[in-house]
Design a protein that fits this description.
The protein is an alpha+beta fold. Helix content is 38%, strand content 15%. The protein has four helices and four strands; from the N terminus they run βαβαββαα. Strand 3 (54-56) and strand 4 form a beta hairpin. This is Glutaredoxin family protein.
């Protein structure tokens, strides 16, 4: 499964996450977090946050607070787990 990044229109952290994934050579699909289908997908995976971005993999859902380290960078462990 290609990771899915759920984003909002105005979201600096969404841009940071997408840039980090691209730089790491990780393919991903971007979806608008505000659509009905996206909300259903997230709720079905027990994700009820309204804060973007959300990163969904085959077996894990990472909310914004899990994606970013204290210094504001994307957590290196998440990037390592997603590398092909």
């Amino acid at each position: 499964m290609i990771p899915i990044v759920y984003t909002l229109d105005v979201c600096p952290n969404c841009e940071k996450l997408k840039a980090a994934l691209t730089e790491a050579g990780i393919e991903f699909e971007e979806r608008d977090m505000q659509t009905r289908d996206s909300l259903v997908d997230l709720r079905c995976r027990a994700c009820f946050t309204q804060e973007a971005p959300v990163l969904m993999t085959e077996d894990q859902v990472y909310e914004s607070k899990q994606i970013f380290s204290q210094d504001g960078s994307v957590d290196s462990g998440i990037l390592a787990a997603l590398r092909p």
